């Protein structure tokens, strides 16, 4: 079970109108895309944080832990922006002489890195607010209101449904391997992982065939119809 | 009604899954197909629903030979539906309501009518309580009931159920049993069940076919077939416990557990 999904269905704001939640997070997201002022970024992060932790009552520890996942990627890209190379020492505010050229930190690089970091964190906060408070059917409702193409919605709904089946299958295979010492050292882990991927692929293809049969017997004609939830308009 | 005449089905790897099978589904209102794993029960169902096409022999629907073009299959499947063993394989939506309504929406039925029929279907499988939960939060037994509701909503004439009690706990099995009974008794549907749960078949079916290695080795009324111990053993099956009481301990043949308790004066 995905923890993000669990929160989406159980958080304190689950029954709030999806339009309001979408508006709140998209408003903040738009602001963080236009804005360049560090203080405003911090305000956006604070708003997204307050919305998620105090308003929707997502546990703080879990929330911070979820933030650390993208943070790792962000950190490596920030490093690449902060440090630059040049043969002229005067552009740096701090530098190391490597004989042929200098490696150091420029003021421009530092500013860029700071803006990037803050913008990424605030955008992340906005999206986390949306995904953690808005269950899947409410997200689909918003997308339908925004007149996104039906094919995209079908794909979105089906992917969502089958993520859990794929996840369950892979957990099942993983457990079965682990119980027979498939992951007790590095060498076994590599070979077990490759088996896991192969078996998962085979099962996916089998499921695909079964799904075609089931779709036929339910008179599928090419459309995945979804309920028009006009009652949620309030 | 559906009828199979001398049907043989061979898979690509040359496995003969069905050998010269003739079967008339008008013989009972709830028909049981019993046989061990690999006896050909699932292949039989896929042939009846037009998914697989017999290599020899023919299937008749309302006395007309089954046709395999798209339009004819569509007409057939309005009247012949199937519940698969694994509910995850036939539930496509995360919303229970959308899934039960799926076939009706494919047919272009009016939303008002859909709403009416979906609610009836959900109520008849006792799924009202969890109809608002996303499907991946449901237990196996609950998913099974959603899958059955999807078929009930189609209101077809014949319903095939492949291993309806597989993997269910006793309470869920009883619930499925009751759904099957009310489908065949009250709604006058033809229900065809494959199973190796002999007690279930004995309880709900009135006509039984015994399959072994792709052939039918016996058929007849339920009490008649379950008295043929040797035939059952040959097919890798056993007698239902109520039949064993009769055959080995000299009790009268009871159809339900309750009848036995009443006989012994222990009814609640």
Please characterize this protein's 3D structure:
With 234 residues, chain A is mainly alpha-helical. Chain A has helices at 3-10, 18-34, 38-55, 60-82, 107-133, 136-145, 150-179, 186-217; strands spanning 83-86, 92-97, 102-106. Chain B has 268 residues and is α/β, with parallel strands linked by helices. Chain B has helices at residues 41-48, 70-79, 96-106, 111-124, 140-154, 170-185, 198-204, 222-226, 229-234, 241-249, 257-263; strands at residues 2-10, 16-24, 30-34, 56-61, 64-65, 80-83, 158-162, 190-195, 207-212, 215-221. The radius of gyration of chain B is 19 Å and the shape is globular. Chain A binds chain B through residues 1, 5, 9, 135-137, 157-158, 160-161, 164-165, 207, 210-211, 213-221, 223-228, and chain B through 46, 49, 51, 73-74, 77-78, 81-82, 84, 86, 88-95, 97-98, 101-103, 105-107, 111, 134-137, 150, 154.
Task: Give the topology.
The complex is a heterodimer of chains A (234) and B (268).
Chain A: H1 3-10, H2 18-34, H3 38-55, H4 60-82, E1 83-86, E2 92-97, E3 102-106, H5 107-133, H6 136-145, H7 150-179, H8 186-217
Antiparallel strand pairs in A: 1-3, 2-3
Helix pairs in contact in A: 2-3, 2-5, 3-5, 4-5, 6-7, 7-8
Chain B: E1 2-10, E2 16-24, E3 30-34, H1 41-48, E4 56-61, E5 64-65, H2 70-79, E6 80-83, H3 96-106, H4 111-124, H5 140-154, E7 158-162, H6 170-185, E8 190-195, H7 198-204, E9 207-212, E10 215-221, H8 222-226, H9 229-234, H10 241-249, H11 257-263
Parallel strand pairs in B: 3-8, 3-9, 6-7, 7-8
Antiparallel strand pairs in B: 1-2, 1-4, 4-5, 9-10
Helix pairs in contact in B: 3-4, 3-5, 4-5
């Amino acid at each position: 079970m995905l923890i993000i999904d669990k929160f989406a269905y159980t958080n304190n704001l689950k029954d709030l109108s999806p339009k309001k939640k979408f508006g709140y997070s998209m408003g903040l997201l738009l602001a963080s895309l236009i804005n360049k002022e560090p203080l405003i970024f911090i305000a956006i992060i604070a708003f997204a944080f307050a919305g998620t932790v105090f308003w929707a009552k997502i546990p703080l520890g879990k929330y911070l832990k979820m933030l650390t996942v993208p943070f790792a990627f962000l950190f490596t890209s920030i490093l690449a922006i902060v440090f630059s190379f040049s043969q002229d020492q005067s552009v740096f505010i701090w530098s190391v002489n490597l004989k042929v050229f200098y490696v150091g930190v420029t003021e421009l690089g530092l500013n860029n890195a700071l803006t990037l970091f803050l913008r990424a964190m605030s955008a992340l906060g906005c999206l986390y607010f949306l995904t953690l408070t808005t269950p899947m059917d409410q997200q689909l409702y918003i997308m339908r209101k925004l007149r996104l193409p039906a094919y995209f919605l079908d794909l979105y709904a089906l992917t969502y449904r089958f993520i859990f089946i794929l996840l369950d299958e892979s957990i099942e295979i993983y457990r079965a391997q682990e119980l027979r010492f498939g992951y007790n050292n590095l060498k076994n882990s590599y070979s077990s992982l490759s088996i896991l991927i192969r078996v998962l692929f085979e099962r996916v293809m089998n499921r695909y065939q079964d799904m075609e049969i089931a779709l036929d017997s339910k008179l599928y004609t090419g459309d995945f119809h979804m309920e028009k939830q006009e009652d949620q308009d309030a | 009604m559906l009828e199979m005449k001398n049907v043989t089905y061979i898979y690509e790897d040359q496995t003969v899954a069905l050998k010269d099978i003739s079967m008339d589904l008008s013989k009972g209102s709830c028909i049981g197909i019993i046989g061990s794993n690999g006896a050909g029960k699932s292949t039989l169902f896929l042939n009846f629903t037009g998914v697989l096409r017999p290599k020899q022999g023919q299937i008749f629907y309302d006395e007309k030979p089954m046709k395999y073009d798209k339009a004819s299959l569509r007409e057939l499947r309005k009247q012949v539906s199937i519940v698969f063993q694994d509910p995850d394989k036939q539930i496509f939506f995360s919303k229970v309501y959308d899934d039960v309504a799926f076939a009706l929406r494919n047919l272009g039925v009016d939303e008002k009518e859909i709403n009416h029929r979906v609610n009836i279907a959900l109520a008849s499988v006792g799924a009202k309580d969890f109809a608002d939960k996303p499907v991946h939060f449901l237990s196996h037994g609950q998913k099974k009931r959603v899958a059955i509701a999807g078929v009930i909503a189609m209101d077809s004439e014949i319903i095939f159920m492949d291993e309806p009690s597989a993997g269910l706990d006793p309470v869920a099995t009883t619930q499925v049993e009751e759904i099957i009974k009310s489908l065949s008794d009250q709604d006058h549907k033809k229900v065809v069940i494959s199973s190796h749960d002999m007690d279930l078949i004995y309880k709900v079916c009135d006509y039984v076919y015994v399959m072994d290695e792709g052939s039918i080795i016996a058929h007849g009324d339920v009490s008649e077939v379950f008295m043929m111990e040797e035939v059952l053993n040959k097919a890798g099956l056993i007698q239902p416990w109520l039949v064993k009481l009769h055959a080995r301990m000299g009790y009268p043949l009871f159809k339900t557990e309750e009848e036995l308790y009443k006989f012994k004066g222990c009814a609640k």
